[in-house]
Each structure stands twice: as structure tokens, then as C-alpha cells.
Amino acid sequence: MTHTLISPLDMHLHLRDEEMLNLVAPLSAYGFAGAIVMPNLVPPITTIEAVLAYKERIVRAIGQNHFEPLMTLFFRSDYTREFLEKAALHVKALKLYPSGITTNSEGGVASMDIELLRPVLEAMSDLGLVLCVHGETNGFVMDREKEFVSIYESLAEAFPKLKIVMEHITTQESVALLDRYENLYATVTLHHLLITLDDVAGGMLQPHLFCKPIAKRYEDREALLHVSLAAHPKVMFGSDSAPHPIHKKECCGCAAGVFTAPIALQVLTELFDKHNALASLQAFVSNNAQTIYGYKALHKEVILEKTPMKVTHAYGNVVPMFANETLAWSIQHVV
Amino acid sequence: MTHTLISPLDMHLHLRDEEMLNLVAPLSAYGFAGAIVMPNLVPPITTIEAVLAYKERIVRAIGQNHFEPLMTLFFRSDYTREFLEKAALHVKALKLYPSGITTNSEGGVASMDIELLRPVLEAMSDLGLVLCVHGETNGFVMDREKEFVSIYESLAEAFPKLKIVMEHITTQESVALLDRYENLYATVTLHHLLITLDDVAGGMLQPHLFCKPIAKRYEDREALLHVSLAAHPKVMFGSDSAPHPIHKKECCGCAAGVFTAPIALQVLTELFDKHNALASLQAFVSNNAQTIYGYKALHKEVILEKTPMKVTHAYGNVVPMFANETLAWSIQHVV
What we know:
Chain A is α/β, with parallel strands linked by helices. Chain A has twelve helices and 14 strands. Chain A has helices spanning 18-31, 48-62, 81-87, 114-127, 144-147, 149-158, 172-178, 190-194, 197-201, 218-229, 264-274, 278-293; strands spanning 2-6, 9-13, 34-37, 68-70, 72-74, 93-96, 130-133, 164-166, 184-188, 235-237, 301-305, 309-310, 326-327, 330-334. In chain A, the strands form four sheets. Chain A has a six-stranded parallel β-sheet with strand order 5-6-7-8-9-10. Chain A has a three-stranded antiparallel β-sheet with strand order 1-11-14, with helices on one face. The longest helix of chain A has 16 residues, at 278-293. Chain A is globular. The A-B interface holds A 140-142, 196-198, 200-202, 204-208, 210, 214, 217-218, 249-256, 319 and B 140-142, 196-198, 200-202, 204-208, 210, 214, 217-218, 249-256, 319.
């Protein structure tokens, strides 16, 4: 049994830089046709020069793979319209982080006051630049995303023409926003379709499943699964695959992030197959994203087959999700 | 500035066995006059011979310290009244674990059906044996203790003469039970007075603060603090100090437990001092427990002084809470 995906896209990906970039970029570039690449490097990507230089390093790292990195800028409220006009030639989106909310987000916005953000968001809206948001407050860890709902509502109402992507949503409240605001969209990760807080901290503590936003409750996972399996047109796959070296995961004070890039398409196929929803997968992993971002992906055919695949214990020094486990589907070949 | 505690007691302590016992027992025995010692060894303590042999190993491990181990049996629903009559000469309490709920609890009760437990609980009630309960269901990790409330209610109603200790409570719902049922009591740990889930998983993941029950919300910590600082007469200090070797904490699949025994009295003094509640500490760490358990502790005077103490990075291969940090109070001497 095989299943073919055309031009799968990862609409939220961390490729990092230097050695780590060289390790992980080919793993994404093998199966995916493109990815929205996050700009939270150290220092963050805030200039056109930095975008172009990073893109060049990515292109070098992916080697012969047929893959298009879709670049983003790290959101700053002091960008000028002139700058954004030029940037719009090179980036698809700006990624907004509340300051300090996740890995390398220290330079993010200190306040979500709409008036402070207005000049940049109006320019983005006019220029057709997408706003990608890490939507968490600095409240109690299980409430951070829910507390951000009112901020999403304010943003959606204040900038009705701006496309706003709620990144890596994890709650039923975020899901509910999709049908209430025309200009709110969402990415959903693989791991949030699979795990709850019970998997992270309900038995032994599992640092490799620790991520931000943290995995929530069963009813939240249900809500995410529901819109993903139904190929809700405003929902896109975005892995948030976030590699950390093993010594930053199995330690005292572990970094947040789940590394899923090399196994994402296989596990998604298994999951959608299990739910008799394989027919929805193409929309979830590619078509919806192309429509939302108004962009035509590189053509690539990924043929998956229902043949077991043993996941390695580590790619270099990075432990993937499902390390040492066997998946039901594997990638047979890529055209 | 000094503060003297008379015969501090730790009403919930894990001393483990063999090398670990030899490492941790003296650390508790130095500052505490006694402790309720948990029976969840491998295999668990279920016979009088095992109780006496374990007590002997503990006494050997504590060396010259003036310290009384208060022994417990691992609850089994098939104990006979005859057995419990003999056991009552050697143990103060039975510890009930729902099967599989925490470290070494696999042999716990598979069902909390009152009728199945009735023969043993009636005998315990008649014999004045205390029932110590790990009160968690196998539900969602943040709800497990709250879901156990109805079980505590059923137990308290069905056995009105049985003293039931809700161990290491972490929620405001458990606190509220104290004033609703005459025969419900509670132990509170040091770490649950200090941390919430935010400290475990709100920033970087902190395996050394991972415990069961998992730390909850701010309002839960407030409720615990409130009754502890007020020396509520039904609340006792029980550290649940649970040593694990470092390779079982800083790893992939980390064990639950916070090791607080060697720093508990110092930190409690700091905490109660900060809240202008030093006058309550004696009741919280000793007097309440003696009244509840109907027992006279060994006499011991622990003189603490407000002199900084640097906590070591590790005791043997066990990392304590506040490792490498400096506490405001230290133990000056013990008489």
C-alpha cells in the first residue's frame, strides 16, 4: 500500500545555524518541498542582509534536495514601511514573539499593545505580509495560550486584511477562533496531534516531549485532531521541529522543543490512515498552506508505503521523536 | 538570630534501602527526631519480619543520631485482622497506593472499591492504625488529586473512627476536605509550599523538581501555604523527600521525586520567617503530628540560625533541591 503526497510543506520549522543547520536542513529538505523558516537565531534575523545570508546558508546545507526555504523576519515594532516594502521581496512573513516566551525570543516584543504594533502591522497588511504569532502570555504554563485569545481577537479585529497565523496551536479555544475571524489561520504540529501533558509528565518525565507551548489536555488534542483530520481550510501543518543537542535535553534545565522533521510525513500518514482520513492529508500538508500564503510550491512527489521504518536513536547529537521505535509507514522514494 | 525547634518530625519520608539508605538516612536523622518511613521498597514491606529487618537496617544507617524511624506497612487488601493485630505492635500506619501511581507502587490496590477494602480498614480503625493514602486517580496528571476527592469522602464517611492522612496534598480541594471531615488529616511537603507547575515546566524543564503529585497552580500553593503557616491542627510536615541517583533524574524518562531531607528544616524556617509565621513552625513540624498520631517524639533540640548556608551540588549521587544555592538559615547545632 502506498500513498503519494504532492509538495508537502512544513509551515513552521527551526533550522538553526552552522553545524546544526547542516545536520537538520537535509532531513527536512528530503521529504518536504518547502518550509517557513523561523528567524529566531542568535542574533535574530532582522535585516534583509541577514535574511539573504541565512537563505544562502540554508540552500548550501540542503545540498541536492529540491526544497524552497520560505524566509521570515523576526518581528520588531520599529521596522519602517520602507524597510518592509523591500523585505516583502524576500520574506513571506514576520514572526512575532512576546519577549522571552520561548527559545531565543529575548528580543521579542515587550508589549502586545495594539497601538505600539499598529504602524508595522498596517504596513504588513498593505504589503500582503503574513503575521506569524507565538501566542502565549507569561501566565501559568497551562493557561498561556488561552490567555492569548483576547490578543488574537484584538489583532484580528484591528487589522482585518492582515493574515494572522496562530502558530503551533494547542488548545480548543484557539481552534474555536478559526471560525470566528476570517483572517485568523493556524499551524498545528505533529506532536500536539499525538501527546498531552500526560505524555510529558504523567508517568516518568520525558524531556524529549517537552515543548512550548506545552502539550495540553485530551479535549485540546481532540480539537486539534478534529480540524486537522477534516482538512479545515484554515489549518496548515507546521512541525515546529526544533532540534536541540542531547545535552540540552537530558539534563538539569532542559530546552523546549521536539525534533520531528525526519519522521513527520511518515507519522502523519500513519495517523491520518488510522483515522481513515488519508484523503485530507494533502490539504493539511500542502494545499491549504499554498492557498493561505498565496504561493505555488515547488513540485515534488513523496511516495510513502506501509512498510515499517525503525527510527534511529539520534541524528547526530539530536534525538528525534519516536527514537528507537518503529513506524508503520516509510518514505519509499521522492520524485 | 536563632530559632529552636523541638523534636522536628518528617511524617512522610523515603529512605530506600542499601547504599541509598546509608547515604540519606543520616541526613534526615541529623535534624529530625523521627520520621514516618514509607514502605515502597522493592519488594514492598508487607510482613512483620520485613518491617523489623528494615527498621534494623535504618537504625544501623543512622549511626549515632538520635532518631526514631516510625515504620509503616504497604497496604494490601488481603491482610487478616490477626496479622494487623500483631503488626500494630510494630507499625504506626499503613500506606495505601493505587497501583502504579508512583515509584514502586506496582503492588498497590487495583481498585478503591470501599467494600473490597472494608475488612482491612475496619480492623485498622479498631486497632488505631493510621491510613496514609497517596490520593491520585489514573486520570489526567493535573486532575488526579482533585478526582480523588470523592474517594477521600467515601473513606472518611465509611470509617469515621479511622484516621486518614491525605499524603503530600497539592490542591485547594484537598485542603478544603480538612475542615469537612473530622477524620481527614494531611501532610504537606516543602516543595509543594514553594513551587508550581511553572517551576517544573514553565521555563526550562526542571527534572529535579518533577514529583508526584505534580506541582499544581498558584491558587493551590496558596491554599497549602495558608494552612501550613497558620499551623492548622490537622496539617503536618511530611517532606516526601525522595532520593534518586542523578542518572535517573537527568535523563530520558526521569523518575519522580524531590530530595529535600537535608535542607528541609532550614528552608521551612526561612519560609515561615519570611511570612512572619515562625511561631507556627513548631506545630507544623512536630506538635500536630504527635497529637494526630498519638505519639510522643524523642526529645531533640534543633537550633537554627540566620546564617547563610551554601547547599552542596550533590549528596553522593543525589542532587538536593536548592543545589548550589544559598539558604538564609542553617542548623547551628543539635542537642
